[in-house]
Queue: 2 jobs
Job 1
Amino acid sequence: DQQVKQNSPSLSVQEGRISILNCDYTNSMFDYFLWYKKYPAEGPTFLISISSIKDKNEDGRFTVFLNKSAKHLSLHIVPSQPGDSAVYFCAARRSTGTALIFGKGTTLSVSS
Amino acid sequence: DTGVSQDPRHKITKRGQNVTFRCDPISEHNRLYWYRQTLGQGPEFLTYFQNEAQLEKSRLLSDRFSAERPKGSFSTLEIQRTEQGDSAMYLCASSHGAPEAFFGQGTRLTVV
């Protein structure tokens, strides 16, 4: 069973506009949620995280929103830049463990 | 660059052969993880070390897989009697207690 779901395989956005990437989860025992970005032939790069006790965390152009009642989180990128084109993975950590559980990823394409 | 280092970057092997991968974590990080990523999927957890102790293993880690982290520094992942289904990107990550883990560039294994 997939505990972390990214239902949109791809997203296309114009440069300067907002990119919104979505993620749903099923396990109420997750205490941290993270977003990673991955370029081809490279390992995932950590972007931003949020604790389950918060509903928003912001870092520059990146903001993550958490809606615990809906078991949903989203990553907002404003403004989007061509260099943001990559695969974005949502990940979660159980409060009883250390390993991250990843979604399948969403490929973001930002056109200039 | 003091990031996570993995060696080799690419490995092609014949079915039935043994392979070994190496990971050098960020020097002050006491936690080390191995993940596997196949096409169209997010990284999947394999195993976790805290210092030299292997504290968690996924059920994905069959008997043919073994990992070590002698002296709590670098780690090796060995796959014995490789099968075509072992073809994947093997990712190593490290952390120092924080939820976010920092990934290396991975070792791409192709079993022919």
Note: Chain B touches chain A at residues 4, 6, 31, 33, 40-45, 48, 55-56, 58, 91, 93, 95, 99-106 (CB under 8 Å).
Job 2
Amino acid sequence: EAGVAQSPRYKIIEKRQSVAFWCNPISGHATLYWYQQILGQGPKLLIQFQNNGVVDDSQLPKDRFSAERLKGVDSTLKIQPAKLEDSAVYLCASSPGTRETQYFGPGTRLLVL
Amino acid sequence: DQQVKQNSPSLSVQEGRISILNCDYTNSMFDYFLWYKKYPAEGPTFLISISSIKDKNEDGRFTVFLNKSAKHLSLHIVPSQPGDSAVYFCAARYGGGGADGLTFGKGTHLIIQP
């Protein structure tokens, strides 16, 4: 069974530029999560989708971050404009449903200069 | 305010001995706890979990213990093997509702010495 796929794996941008990350969850998984992991910290939840609806986006900085999951499968996370403090690894995870094991992708490492 | 704390940034253990990783939490609304293992340049992989209604869960070489009154859990690895060298994250989940994003600790880097 294929795991969670993410692209790109690495991205370097300058501050105030925009960037987008893509996630393809495990086939059949209804729940999708985006986490931000800053160096030296544990992952922090940004947003949770159930199919194509948002369940929790309380920790998403909505002035600059946006996410969507059209058709309830793939998801994109966008940052516009990026700040230096957005440098982090962005992890996508999926699970068959809520309250089930979350499976993580390899992450996208973002560096903002 | 950190709700899940892993106070040891690193731990070095000899191969074959027991590794004990500790985790404390502050929020009594957490009802499910998980351990994830992470290798460099990879995403975290699920290792073992425990519900708040239990005090122990075992899976092969891995055992997780939960002390609810102390708000403390620990992961025991016996015997430790070189492939166990990784960063281990403790995570917790709120009970009830559809929102079930995990709250993670900062991680403990386990180094297994030959």
Note: The interface with chain B takes residues 4, 31, 33, 35, 40-45, 48, 50, 55-56, 91, 93, 98-99, 101-107 of chain A (CB under 8 Å).
